[in-house]
């Protein structure tokens, strides 16, 4: 296959969408497919260079995901469409399949690609909000979705897109790399070391976790993340904004908690911890929870409840419970959340 990835994001960081896309591109290359990239995402352009992927940098202005940008898009879109199509032709990028990751090209490039017989897949990484549910282009997207395959990173996310009347929606769980061979788990030392790797924002619910920790004895919390929400460090709560190697966080903790308050499309850190044999706690707002069983391979709690989180953390004080959930979780992750499994699933869809 000749596969073109496109992304013109509102903002870009070393986040889940960028990581999943990089892993997917590399996996497809390793299986003999020709992969290229077109877009303005600096993170992916940099990674394409490292992967020796043909990357074409193109700026098309801000995507229509804010009120003003959606309005201005109405008169900007004609020039953007011309620029997109012209670049495909001049750079000889027209593929057998286009994987579109951002709203701009989904709206503007899909009709052209479909008319040329190019298979189109839309990947949806982001939490659905007003940027889509109240977007003036929603009815157009609903109509175009009949001719594309919309791939969401979980069944939870897929159900939300179906509720928006998207057609041909499927869920493919994200995949994560296996831990390095030299990874070693933390040895329990009578103080339960709880870890949280998440953006510091309202929807991630880190504040709920901090409140829960006040109801737990003999435990500390290590938070790895940055964002707009301020979290006060204390004797039992520490915050690290930058950790070069996430394995340095996993080596320090006994339990990983993802306390998402609102829809979290997947929850990569839960899968990463599970693959390392670290027991996990997540809320029912996390997409990964749909693939797990409460009190078997994880503990699942209601989103937004500090009391429920505290109760789950207290359950993890028991060594036998941690061991059981850690071992079962690792088996589940090896069956469902490896990069190989994810690439298998994408390859089937992209090759149809």
* Tally of discrete structural domains: 2
Taking all residues together, what is the mean pLDDT? Answer: 94
The fourth-level CATH homologous superfamily of the largest domain is: Glycogen Phosphorylase B
- Return the CATH architecture of the largest domain: 3-Layer(aba) Sandwich
The parts where pLDDT drops under 50 for at least 5 residues are none
Q: Taking strands numbered 1, 2, ... along the chain, how are they ordered across the largest sheet?
A: 3-2-1-4-5-6-7
How many beta-strand runs?
13
Query: Which bin fits the share of residues in helices?
Result: 40-55%
CATH topology of the largest domain: Rossmann fold
Net shape: globular
Helix count from the secondary structure assignment: 14
Structural class: alpha/beta
H and E order: EHEHEHEHHEHHEHEEHEEHEHEEHHH
Strand count, sense and closure of the main sheet? 7 strands, parallel
Q: How much β-strand is present in the residues?
A: 15-25%
Layout of helices and strands, plus pairs?
Layout: E1 2-7, H1 16-30, E2 34-39, H2 42-51, E3 54-57, H3 67-90, E4 97-100, H4 103-108, H5 110-115, E5 119-124, H6 130-133, H7 138-144, E6 149-152, H8 155-163, E7 169-171, E8 192-197, H9 206-213, E9 219-224, E10 237-240, H10 247-250, E11 255-258, H11 268-275, E12 280-283, E13 299-301, H12 306-315, H13 319-336, H14 339-350
Parallel strand pairs: 1-2, 1-4, 2-3, 4-5, 5-6, 6-7, 8-9, 8-11, 9-10, 11-12, 12-13
Structure description:
By secondary structure, this protein is α/β, with parallel strands linked by helices. It folds into two domains: 186 residues, Glycogen Phosphorylase B (Rossmann fold, 3-Layer(aba) Sandwich); 145 residues, 3-Layer(aba) Sandwich (Rossmann fold), CATH 3.40.50.2000. The protein has 14 helices and 13 strands. The longest helix has 24 residues. The model has no long low-confidence stretch (mean pLDDT 94).
């Amino acid at each position: 296959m000749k596969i073109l990835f496109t992304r013109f994001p509102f903002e870009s960081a070393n986040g889940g969408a960028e990581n999943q896309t990089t892993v997917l591109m590399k996996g497809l290359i390793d299986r003999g497919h020709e992969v290229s990239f077109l877009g303005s995402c600096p993170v992916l352009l940099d990674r394409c260079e490292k992967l020796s992927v043909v990357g074409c940098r193109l700026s098309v202005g801000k995507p229509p995901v804010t009120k003003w940008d959606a309005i201005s898009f109405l008169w900007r879109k004609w020039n953007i469409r011309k620029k997109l199509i012209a670049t495909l032709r001049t750079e000889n990028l027209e593929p057998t399949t286009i994987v579109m990751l951002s709203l701009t090209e989904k709206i503007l490039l899909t009709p052209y690609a479909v008319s040329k017989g190019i298979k189109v897949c839309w990947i949806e990484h982001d939490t659905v909000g007003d940027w889509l549910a109240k977007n003036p282009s929603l009815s157009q997207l609903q109509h175009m979705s009949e001719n594309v395959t919309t791939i969401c990173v979980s069944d939870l996310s897929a159900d939300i897109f179906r509720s928006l009347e998207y057609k041909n929606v499927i869920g493919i769980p994200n995949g994560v790399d296996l831990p390095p061979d030299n990874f070693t788990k933390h040895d329990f030392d009578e103080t339960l070391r709880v870890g949280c790797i998440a953006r510091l924002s309202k929807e991630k619910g880190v504040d709920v976790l901090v409140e829960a920790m006040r109801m737990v004895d003999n435990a500390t919390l290590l938070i790895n993340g940055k964002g707009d929400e301020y979290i006060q460090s204390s004797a039992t709560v520490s915050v690290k904004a930058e950790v070069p190697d996430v394995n340095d966080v996993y080596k320090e903790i006994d339990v990983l908690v993802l306390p998402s308050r609102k829809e979290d499309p997947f929850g990569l850190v839960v899968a990463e911890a599970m693959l390392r044999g670290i027991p996990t706690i997540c809320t029912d707002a996390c997409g990964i929870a749909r693939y797990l069983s409460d009190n078997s391979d994880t503990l699942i709690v209601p989103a937004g409840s500090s009391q429920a989180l505290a109760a789950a953390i207290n359950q993890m004080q028991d060594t036998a419970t941690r061991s059981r959930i850690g071992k079962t979780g690792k088996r589940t992750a090896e069956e469902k959340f490896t990069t190989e499994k994810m690439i298998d699933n994408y390859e089937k869809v992209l090759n149809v």
